[in-house]
């Protein structure tokens, strides 16, 4: 998991830096920065489950919004037949931006989920036992 977290730190840090030319750079720099920070702390084994739970909740909530928003992912899938989103973004194709953001949020959520699963397996919660007979 350390190697995977190192990979996520690099990818999320690069993603945060290249957001400077995004229409909403502060938001996306903060989102990817949060992912990089949480994975850095996980790499150093100084993370906390709350970091990962919070990330999953916020990122998936925003992803659901982007899925259903006008000209969002659902529109890309149904009205635009899932056309390529690898080309340049244009004002007449807002679904490209929303779909890319949606996919980024899913990747971030996946990283947080992996860290939760790994942490849970490594440090399972203590069980309460009943010693009364």
TrEMBL record:
UniProt KW Transmembrane helix keyword: yes
Keywords: Membrane, Transmembrane, Transmembrane helix
Protein name: Transmembrane family 220, helix
InterPro entries: TMEM220
Annotated TM spans: 26-44, 56-78, 98-118
Short name of any one Pfam family annotated for the protein: TMEM220
Domain of life per record: Bacteria
